[in-house]
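Dear support,

Our group has been running a series of protein-ligand predictions, and this particular one with S-adenosylmethionine is the one our PI (initials K.S.) wants archived with full inputs and outputs. We had some confusion internally about which version of the output was final, so please treat the block below as the authoritative record. The input we submitted was:
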Amino acid sequence: MSIVERLRAAGCVFAEDEAALLQEAADNPAHLEELVRQRIDGLPLEHVVGWALFCGQRVVVTRGVFVPRHRTELLVDLATELRPGVAVDLCCGSGAVGAVLQHRLPDATVYAADIDPAAVECARKNLTNVFEGDLFDALPSHLKGHIDVVVANVPYVPTDDIQFMPVEARDHEARVALDGGVDGLDAMRRVAAQAKHWLRPGGHLMSETSERQAPAALAAFTAAGLDARLVTSDDTTAVVGSA
Ligand SMILES: C[S@@+](CC[C@H](N)C(=O)[O-])C[C@H]1O[C@@H](n2cnc3c(N)ncnc32)[C@H](O)[C@@H]1O
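Confirmed final output from the archive:
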């Protein structure tokens, strides 16, 4: 059986494209066979080849780290429009958001932070100024009151819904990257509550949410004293708050 046929038999919808990417990633035939086997065993393609395409840019994604989703590109576009001088990619995972922002805005100073050491190690392959710790606590204190834009793509899946996620996410992305607590908004509420201490007056916080969670997300931003609104694209809802 050819590689394409094997991938198709394993349920890979874009088998031709995947086969080409696996061939590109492999150093030799034995390595290629190992990568094909990993993919057939269910490892996300991005973890097999070690990168994901995000906003047209290749971003390093190591095993166990959240694979950046195309729907999150809305947050990057919104942040770019604001042309921040100081931007923070909070809950950065691979650092995809921060890496693209830095690429689009070379004069900006971009910081990133995550609580998961594996994510921090991965993000350091994509950008500088990556810190490890709980939400804003990870950041240097001199940033307090000086941040123009915080992009926080926090975990927002309600705990009981994780079982319904695709197996690639459930089995290969860290639980801390997905689990947002009972209603999915635990991390978002905490970020919103702290945001005003870190943003400059008029600075912005933005997070991705779902259509179902959007009213509660908006309420969380408003309760934290932010002037908040929802922005939607074809497949995403973002909540954007101004300090
Ligand atoms: C949904 S993933 C998003 C990753 C990345 N921003 C992206 O869009 O690809 C959420 C990330 O939040 C991190 N995280 C969860 N709880 C956190 C906390 N209390 N402080 C900092 N990071 C946290 C996870 O480790 C994970 O990398």
